[in-house]
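the two lines:
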Amino acid sequence: MRAGAKLGFFLLFAPLVLWLGLLIVIPHIDMFLVSIRERIGVAEYQTSLANYLTFFTEPLYLVTFLRTAMMSILATALTLVIGFPVSFYIAKIAKGRLQSALFLLTLVPFYVSELVRTFGWMILLRETGLFSTLLQWLGLADQPVEMLYNDVAMMVGLVYTSMLFMVVPLITTMESLDDSVIEAGYDLGGSGFSVMREIIIPHAMPGIVSGSIIVFMLSLGNYLTPTMLGGKDSLWFTELIYSQFIVRFNWELGAAFGFMLLFLSSLIVWGTLKLTGQTLEKTMG
Amino acid sequence: MTDPILESVSLSKRFGNFVAVDDVSFSVPEGSFFSILGPSGCGKTTIMRMIAGFLEPTSGDILIRGRSILDVPPNKRPVNMVFQHLALFPMMNIEGNIGYGLRRKGMEKAEIAARVGEVLERIGLPGIGKRKVDELSGGQKQRVAIARCMVMEPDVLLLDEPLGALDLKLREHMKIELKQLQSDFGTTFIYITHDQSEALVMSDQIAVMNQGRFEQIGSGRDLYYRPGTAFVAGFVGEANRWRGKVTRAQGGGLQLTTEAGLVITGADHGRGLRVGEEAEIFVRPEAIRIGHAVSDVAHFSNQMSGSVGSLLFNGAASRAMLRPAGGGDEIEVALPQSGEFSALKRGDEVHIGWEAEQANAFAYDPTAAAATAKASGTGGT
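prediction for all of em together
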């Protein structure tokens, strides 16, 4: 009986261990090993930190790196600002069928792939697209307007792609807030603003933090949206990694970039948790 | 008599076609403990939410100290509410909870701390200010929820079945404590409950509510001994009931013959029942005297004999269910405290009797009968 229980335990654990081991731990170890070797001749390598040194000495890499981080933070903040009222409405104001219908509506766009959704934006924003034609028809523009290939278009795409991952944790945490607690806030003299600040936001904090972490990581690691909607100046760090691996065939530098990105996202997530006084268990549990 | 602090004038609330509160008027004197007692779904919570400002009445008015408060938003009303599940703010400590309202008033920090300390002292929990909400026991949370409102010095404190979540023993204890707190603070309490013993023990005045209407307003004693309607007679306290036709009526006294042919004398206390009318008679278990011999009950105007069907031992509130010799429903009889009947067992022959004065007769009202049957089935806590 005990042996059977043990076997069951291993069988249940095996997929998780395989998944973590094969797809995450082993590739990362290999990547790390690749990142710390330097090519000195044909098929000749030595261990050094030269790749990391290249990263810090080449301004384009460093600037793109910091820019990607800042833009991801901005995308996260925008997603939060837009997603919070939406989630509040769905969780606390809408009732019954309207509530489930609205929740479903936030999910529906994610039934199609990210690629198709991004093409949707291209159809709307391109020179011969819907918005451009509409502006001309209204007489607000006298020639086609190109709205693609800039930071704003990219930001729109990033926020849109991430919205669901902010809204779901926010709705879940806000639904767990008893309506009478909000009413008690008003009953004791609170205004809409103070109830929001002292009761609703503190209660939703775990959801805000976990949603922000997910959205931030997704934006930071996004490749498709910046590539398709961003312009020449909107270089994303993932594009650099891609070009090192695929275009330049410089796996060593690409691996070092990959590790810098991992380090950066871990650092920012850790910093956010410390700053908001949340723990990973509390936000993800 | 002081002027009423709170008045409700023909208050009504409709949700679509459903009338939740139907033309309810009452007034509450300052400093009193006023309860609204009724089965679940009778509209009592709707009244309370209208007073607190979370619902707008369809018609009618609510006045506090003679002034209408309908245009005042909930956060500006001189009324505070203790919610059913207390609704303490889990994101704040006890101090934060109690001080919340004062902070909203823009009071100085030192002043808030002093007031919070003072009110914690009064509820007998000094020094718990820094604790978290979930570190407190049920009874402590209860007191903190009341303190959080009392610190605001409201004109009226509303309590929405606040004892519902507590276990029986604590509930009994909190009943006494709530009454104590109310007389200490001297604040007017409006208390909503479906539990008659809570209402009877604590209240100065009780309004019994059913299907959106007030059936009767009075002291606990009035409601118990002089119920105004059949619903009140059936809902407040326990009662044996018989339904039948009035076969004789003179000067308040009357005689009722049930379908089974049982003849019972009762009193209509001025309700003017006439011969031939269908009526119901309510007799409280403790109004019935039990005896071993016919002579023990010979002086009562109603007499019956029967055998003990079952015994419900419950300490001081022990009951015997009697099967009448002439057939019909079992009759619930309170057993005297003297221990005289402690040896009673199933199947024993006994004689019972009660005064016509103790048998309250009402015209039969099928809707009220259905409501009490439902209420006593569900509200048996």
